[in-house]
User: Fold these one by one.
Assistant:
Number 1:
Amino acid sequence: MPDASAAKKTLPDAQTVTTVRHWTDSLFSFRVSRPASLRFRSGEFVMIGLPGDNGKPILRAYSIASPNWDDELEFYSIKVPDGPLTSRLQHIRPGDEIIMRPKPVGTLVLDALLPGRRLWFLATGTGIAPFASLMRDPETFERYDQVVMMHTCRTAEELTYGRELVENLAHDPLLGELYGADFAKRLLYYPTTTREESPLMGRITDNLVSGKVNADLNLPPISAETDRAMICGSLAFNQDVKKVLEDFGLREGANSEPREFVVEKAFVGDGI
Ligand code: FAD
Ligand code: A2P
């Protein structure tokens, strides 16, 4: 009989799972070891996966949810019931190995935006993952006076990962020490639900267009002079938010051409 532990060590680009946390029936997060040689910019994604039955790995794009100074890598994941990867990935436990291709890429990076005063993170569902990285990176707060994290999900339970992360940031060893009591004014959190009653409700698009979020947070209207944004959600969400920001006069940028906002899909939808 082949030795299972010996087989594990033959995985190419293997990383060891250190912690797993299940947030809802359909959402979980986990942390893995970080290869010493891996350098990435907060907000980027990598390909991760598990070996397939035919020996070919099942790999999918995943935003790195941890900041670039962290010793480990964190990921925040959906559980798609019949999903080739996540139907299995959701069962990982500490000590298991996953595959990670060490080639980080992505558009949700600070370098793809022009300097500004206020940075908006606009996410639905697991689209908060790249911002979980950027919110924990001191460079974000070195570049911008204020960061506004808008996260929308159908239910309040689905907001828990982001809510806990934001609450813990005030006590973060790095950011807490850097910004102290001022931190609550630097990071503004605006979580909303759309299909369950909660203190704040509504789609991100509606709350931007109506100006409700600005009124609630006591912020001036969005303008191309002061405001920058990063968008991460479904294709339809991204398209709709893009239109809203363009109506405010902001233009889409890229690594090669920094402008006022950048966009990345949180997943590739059915048939797209
Ligand atoms: P798949 O066959 O890949 O997907 C099946 C269907 O499930 C899709 O057609 C879609 O309708 C739906 N779906 C897939 N992913 C999601 C999702 N995240 N939210 C809602 N519906 C979804 N997924 C994460 O969970 N966390 C991440 O940080 C993440 N980052 C990504 C970054 C990029 C740039 C891209 C393109 C995708 C990212 N994804 C992320 C999606 C991820 O690559 C996989 O699609 C997901 O893990 C499901 O894999 P699967 O093989 O189980 O199912
Ligand atoms: P809604 O409940 O009004 O559809 P989903 O679970 O379908 O991926 O959606 C996640 C969250 O994103 C939901 O709160 C949903 O609101 C919202 N959403 C979905 N599509 C859009 C869109 N095109 N513009 C703005 N918000 C959207």
Number 2:
Amino acid sequence: MKVLVTDPIAEEGIATLRDAGHEVVTGYELEGEALLDAVGDTHALIVRSGTEVTAEVFGAAPSLRIVGRAGIGVDNIDVDAATDHGVVVANAPDGNVRAAAEHTVAMTFAAARSIPQAHGRLADGEWAKGDYLGREVNNKTLGVVGLGRVGQEVAKRLDSLGMDLVVYDPYINEERAAQFGAELVDDLDDCLARADFVTIHTPLLPETEGMIGAEELETMGDAYLVNCARGGIVDEAALAEAVADGPVAGAALDVFAEEPLSPDSPLLDVDDVIVTPHLGASTEAAQENVALDTARQVLAAFEDEPVVNALNAPSVDESAFPRIEPYLDVADTAGKIAAQLLGERISGVEVGYEGDIAEEDVDLVTASALKGVFSPLEYEVNAVNAPQIAEDRGIGVTESKTRQAEDFRSLVTVTVTDGDAELSVRGTLLAGDDPRIVRIDGYRVDARPYGQMLVARNRDEPGVIGLIGTVLGEAGVNIAGMFNGRETIGGEALTVYNLDDRLSDDAVDRLLDDDRITSVDRITLDGADADR
Ligand code: NAD
Ligand code: MLT
């Protein structure tokens, strides 16, 4: 497989991929048309914050399976477009948290003690001892906006340096804040007004974009602002003005709305604003961590194993994956058969789990069933985009679970409906993970699902199966296997055939000409019959 790396990552990540036998190509200057060309035959793309992975990029990358973000923020990746194209987006959210927190603390002190400014003047030969009177953090209040992974690490460190903590984060509760010795406030302004130092640790989202503007800076008063989260959260022009003309005491920024920061930025004209070029995660340890985490996720995607930090694919615990993996295929196949048999506009899908499988986290199995249902209709469908396709088409998806499984250890049933009619296909695994379809539309069967299949409904009368055999024989189609299911003698029967070839339209018409045969459906599944 080909892996394209468009932002520098640690060599350990690249080596891991090469050692696993994959081709790794680096292209750190790629953008625009050159990037679109380069992703044309790429199976995995690895980026940091420098590459904009737009819908156009996904459109130009038909083989792409995964975009690995060697870091946390994915605001440079169009995750919705990735989902539409069935591409997994995975970040590496843990490896650089400490580095980002340490940088935040360093920036807090650097701003409070004017370290970069004093260094610059001394480097120019000026002993400006009398010009700097800094502020201690001890006994001051730290306002933390966003108490997630990085915010928590910052809180721990600055709490231990004698600061009182107030937190604004609408998605956590008081107990969580209290674990970090912090008081949770309901209102951003309350947090800003009380803080002597404000540190931002939210993602860049529509709701956080521009969250700190002129009014909020006014509310902060004579405090310091530190932003090592994302550019765009703070209004840079308003901040430059608020520090230059008051009331804000100073600011320390590692991230900017446009990166690299333009030399014309008003921030660079203000002495009490200090800046670093997005260095929060730039430690050896952090870069090695995120590069390795990202490489492992790319390998998992190549092996169809769970991608631990996938942001747009159903997740599954790595330890549980071996138990559910065989059922992915059962669900996919049951979905394919059900959709092809109903043959109508599907408006709802129910996936039922019985027995041991009902104890598991089945999100991925349901996604696999949806993949099966949509595969006759959609060209590029996989477990990543199948739930999205259902949502886009307004198709209701439900799951049901029961711990009892009639006659089997585990059963997966996919039921599709067009609003009127409903059709169910139930599958299981026999010993040795041998998939079987054990019920179709209420009929008990024992069918091996693979290759070309034929499902015929007919009156349960002598001679009908013989007729079907004759028509298939005359059409030159060999029968590899067959199972006849009937509920009552002389009632309706449902017969499932495994065929070596697809049956022609003429042969289907010949079968339907016999009034004892009520329906004939051809099903195409994956897999050859050679080893069955
Ligand atoms: P996280 O998802 O663990 O935490 C984010 C927190 O923000 C969550 O607790 C969430 O509830 C909170 N939040 C969301 N919306 C909010 C809102 N409107 N108001 C207040 N709080 C809100 O993320 P993280 O891993 O802690 O990363 C935090 C930020 O740091 C991200 O923007 C990330 O990209 C950035 N980051 C930057 C660097 C760097 O190099 N400078 C390195 C790592 C992370
Ligand atoms: C991140 O989101 O992880 C950081 O921005 C670090 C980076 O990749 O530079």
Number 3:
Amino acid sequence: MKFNESDVLQSLPKQFFADLVKKVSAKIATGADVINLGQGNPDQPTPDFIVEAMQKATADPANHKYSQFRGDPKLRQAAADFYKREYGVDLDPDKEVAILGGSKIGLVELPFAILDPGDTMILPDPGYPDYLSGVALAKVKMEKIKLNKENGFLPDYASLDPEVVKKAKLIYLNYPNNPTGAVASPDFFARTVKFARDNNIAVCQDFAYGAIGFDGKKPISFLQTPGAKEVGIEMYTFSKTYNMAGWRVGFAVGNADMIKAINLIQDHLFVSIFPAIQKAAIAALNSDQSSVRKLVALYEKRRNQFFAAARKIGWEPYPSGGSFYAWMPVPKGYTSQSFSDLLLDKAAVAVAPGNGFGSAGEGFVRIGLLIDEPRFTEACQRIAKLNLF
Ligand code: PLP
């Protein structure tokens, strides 16, 4: 028998970066010493105290059973305590926190949880490509809001067609931003609350890089904005803050109706996550956060070193305030794709072409600072030899 994928599955977007992975693997197979700056996978290990908490919890048979459907109440409490301590935000752990198996699942399932087929949602361009999967699975319509250098890679709500604003029911934001490294200001979040309230649009702020802010400036949470909880939620992940990308744990916080919808869909799709992972996650949130400060210092050092190396060859970065990415312009005469292909081909340096994040990403490439300094300085030296700048 032959089985076909459903129409919905066939409508899923093509994984743009699968092509990049293929090209990099093919280059490595030729024996080239590829410096891979194309990825977004944290390179540092999970802090020991979290691994130890997991080891202890794994040995306890109480953690071998099904988790409670909506996760360990102690983890929800730890998330609420964390938001209070870090951001001064009050959360009801039962009504305003949902445990997620990583934030990707929350971001993908949210449109399905709160929209109906044919509804409209707004996504940032450039933006994290996995948002598109949620659009396809929920069969909703998508409109893009352009982020550009002139607006500091923050959406200008006035740029939206009024007809789109009238129809839209949900908007996604992501600060600190992947791929640009831009950070949000309190003013911008205040404008967002007003825009959402005035137009009845729910907000989902993806805070994946929330821990990673530079120059002594801690990224602000959307929920710190007066009125934010009335209009939206924030997605938080352990993947970047604690180098726990493979563990698959995160949470959504904020608006009780949106959290309830997420919990409801998850009741039908999952039985929460492995209880031992939840115990380790509690240890992470309740810790003194010194591991996070150390990690941020490392990323800031790498950013400074990379920016210095790039400027030395005449390659001027967009000034990143957070995340572990550098958003770099493409030299004249190239597109994001042709420049990325050239770097891989002639310098054995892999970067992510900006158009993979949306059409507004054209003209840029994204560099992940997830290797140690000698390698990205070497990458810049190899690129210098191409005499492009
Ligand atoms: N949001 C953004 C902007 C990301 O870059 C990522 C991962 O790279 C995620 C969400 C997903 O993170 P996770 O599913 O590991 O929590």
Number 4:
Amino acid sequence: MVNVESEPHGSRRDREIVAARVIVTSPGRNFVTLKIETRSGVSGLGDATLNGRELAVAAYLEQHVIPNLIGRDAGRIEDTWQFLYRGAYWRRGPVTMTAIAAVDVALWDILGKMAGLPLYQLLGGRSRDVVLVYGHASGRDIEETSAEVGRFIAQGYRAVRAQCAVPGLAKSYGVTRMKNAYEPAESELPLQTVWSTAPYLEVVPRLFERLRADHGREVELLHDVHHRLTPIEAARLARDLEPYRLFWLEDATPAENPDGFEHIRRHSVTPLAVGEVFNSIWDCRALLERQLIDYIRTTIVHGGGITHVRRIADLAALHGVRTGFHGATDLSPVTLGAAVHFDTWVPNFGIQEYMRHSEQTDAVFPHDYTFRDGCLHSGESAGHGVQLDEKLAARFPYSPKQLPVARLPDGTMWDW
Ligand code: CS2
Ligand code: MG
């Protein structure tokens, strides 16, 4: 029988969860954070941000999760995960799995702080010293986009995602004139945008032809289709992009239909990335086991936390698939901090998305990860190394926002 009073990371009494609360703040954009406090005074943070559905997750945590946490042993991370997953009955889905993720990450943070170890060490230690990242370049035309890619290369990025405006469309996914990162949730009700595939399929190959001509073949180039093509259109684009050696083509076609990726694989060797909208290993399974993709993007905040995403990464590794975590600015620095530790450990690491948060966001979420020479470096603080300045957070009240929707020119509802 284990003497629980002498365990290395405090006693059972020290680890008892005595309080948990949801903090919603909007330093430039909405974030939802769960803070779990133990009797020892050690607390942990988990990100619970789901862009456009923030209050749904906050309510799920406050109404259905937090009452079940009080009195639990914060050290029983796996059992808490199983309780929240199996005990929900209505399992999976983005709201449920984001809520579970927030609890999971907060408990891993507490464990690290109690053990005095950084999260990557709790997972098994360093597999690498630095974490390769990619930045987001965009432009209103090919010329401007290429200049933006050059700016990222000049900042030391070794990998850059490139998105350019689609001729004839008023708004294009991923294209922003904002100084900071692209923020798609810009209105209380969904902005209605128009999408047209034909001009898109024409401009993208020309964009990457120009990028290779301007910047050579060494820099890693990525592109996000954002779910907008049919399988055969995606196959055509992947084939047309082959001469420009992309690091990956992302969300080429809606991934609820894994068979669609058979078409792409039949016509092209352009590497494929999918998964930011997935929230469990069951969403990923077919694509991984049939090796229909090359990078899995399902990340900690929407994929059930470290405990579950670790299982997804292991399944991916069995099939030669690497991680490529989603890292948009609508995932808080708490997720980025936890992700950099995970990326530092995970054997089958691929790349980490790094859309820089605003200075306002970074002030609310002080952290110890750093960017240098195209890579992120995890800090050595215990836990995931991200804090929350609650006093400052309180100065930024929630502001309801939703993601846009897209229709074809004839009004047909499409995928944004
Ligand atoms: C995008 C995201 O970063 C990406 O790959 O797909 O910016 C996505 O549009 C947002 O996270 C949606 O909230
Ligand atoms: Mg994406």
